[in-house]
Specification:
Toxin ADP-ribosyltransferase, Chain A, domain 1; 3-stranded antiparallel sheet
Length: 258
């Protein structure tokens, strides 16, 4: 008998590894709908409903816009590219960053709490779907403990929030992520619709691939190549139900079927 896991996104910019990757275990995930009806606004206006939620938001909005070239890559507008860049910026502590609060809210069962983010989500996801889907690709995430018991083969897994991954496994060996010692778990993810955001990131040296909320996967296998290292292999599938509505009519969340 299988059970369905909901896997949370990371809450630190070093979001390739976390101590708390499992949010809860349940079979249903509420779809993300309604935001697509918002108008497409400039970044500053799209973020205005969040000014009372995120500390010094206007400062980071200006930072993202200032860092964005006049002609962004991938055919994005300045505001679209800056919306991605804003997502990648780490707020100065102790304040939580946009990506941290957004992903926390995406994991919340009450979708009303997500409403203040709708205007930003409209711009952010419009930008993301304009980026080409990466070809079928293996990417990596990590967690600094053994969670292999939670992911037996054939388990369906749903990522409830945006999730950062890397294509470069050695990156996770850095001490700011997983390191080389202690109990740790690597997720080897075969994905079909990730978005490579490094050309629009505040951290230009990171080869970061973003997984969208509502991404559905199936656990394929797991093994332990070392006493404290566990590797779990998952493969993405296209869900039959809509877990994330497209940001506009005709937008493709997944590659066109051949």
């Amino acid at each position: 008998m299988t059970h369905s896991n909901n896997v949370e996104s990371i809450t630190a910019k070093s979001s390739l590894a976390s101590e708390n990757i499992i949010n809860d275990i349940k079979s249903e995930v509420d779809p993300i709908v309604g935001y697509s009806e918002e108008p497409l606004l400039p970044l500053s206006k799209a973020c205005s409903p969040l000014n009372n939620i995120l500390h010094s938001l206007s400062f980071y909005v200006h930072m993202a816009l200032d860092e964005t070239p006049e002609v962004p890559p991938d055919g994005l507008t300045i505001d679209e590219s800056a919306a991605i860049r804003l997502y990648t910026i780490e707020w100065i502590g102790p304040y939580r960053s946009l990506y941290s609060m957004l992903n926390y809210t995406l994991k919340n069962h009450d979708r009303e709490n997500l409403r203040p983010y709708f205007k930003y989500l409209k711009l952010f996801l419009t930008a993301l779907v304009k980026l080409p889907c990466v070809p079928p690709l293996t990417v990596w995430r990590g967690v600094t403990k053994n969670v292999s018991d939670e992911f037996p083969p054939d388990t369906p897994v749903t990522w409830r929030a945006f999730s950062s991954c890397t294509t470069a496994l050695p990156v996770l060996e850095n001490e700011m992520y997983l390191g080389n010692t202690g109990s740790r778990t690597l997720f080897s993810l075969e994905i079909i619709n990730g978005r490579r955001i490094c050309a629009h990131s505040h951290f230009v040296t990171e080869d970061e691939v973003l997984i969208l909320p509502g991404t559905r996967m199936i656990v394929q296998s797991q093994f332990s190549p070392a006493p404290e290292l566990h590797i779990i292999h998952l493969k993405q599938i296209v869900p039959k139900e809509v877990l994330l509505e497209p940001p506009f009519e005709g937008a493709l969340l997944y590659p066109k079927p051949e």
